[in-house]
Amino acid sequence: MFKVSPLRKRQFLGGIIGLVLGIAIFYILTLESTEQYISIGPMNTGHQDLNCFACHADAKGNLFQQLQSNMSHAVGARKEGVDFGTQDVTVDNCLQCHDRPNDRHPTYRFSEPRFKDAIKNIDATTCITCHTEHEEERVSVATVNYCMNCHQDLEVENDPLDISHKDLIVEEAWTTCIQCHDFHGNHRYEVPEKLGDTIPMKIIRHYFDGGEDPYGTDKKYIALSQKAWLEQLKND
Questions:
Q1: What is the pLDDT of residues 29-83, one digit of tens each?
Q2: Do 116 and 212 sit in the same domain of this protein?
């Protein structure tokens, strides 16, 4: 009769225990209560109450099928790989809550051929260019001179500003744009007519980092997640 050595028994038992522990840990980490342990960073300002699955939808197929497809892609037997675990977050995920009919700079507009040079410098076809998640901030773009990519030839009739837009463009004072105008045009507020009355860059930067909104809280449209929250408050 074949006799199994004590070493083989320990190896087999260790393998079984490792497999069980691995499956248990994987299962535990898929629960919503453990999201904080697998998140790559804190949620951005305004997204604190969202769970991971609000943006990271489950990928198609089971894990074995996903692994098999990606292995086939790695060895050249399949043309493209597939999402593993969860689907990639795209602009469509953002627009589920933030799609506004009044958006001054909607992402779809930048897919037009006339913006092909501009998006080489700043890809405005996707939200995450400026709003990278898990950074615990509101805006993550490094510099605020992005208006220069589209508005070099801007002309304002009956320019109300004490220093004309034309002169500001000549001086390449592109950071002054955001001191007067919010990028998406969703705030209701009086635009200043004197450059000295504009919002200081220090306050703008604080706002980008997640601070108080210097343009005010009166908005034309609010995100769908905020609408749901307000409805809940009414019902309570």
A1: 656 656 666 677 888 888 888 888 788 888 888 877 888 888 888 888 888 888 8
A2: yes
13 belongs to a structural domain: yes
The domain total for the chain is 3
Same structural domain, 224 and 185: yes
Residue-number span of the structural domain to which 214 is assigned:
89-236
Do residues 82 and 128 both lie within one domain? no
Encode pLDDT of 154-176 as tens digits.
999 999 999 999 999 999 999 99
Q: What is the dihedral of CA 162, 165, 168, 173, to 10 degrees?
A: 110
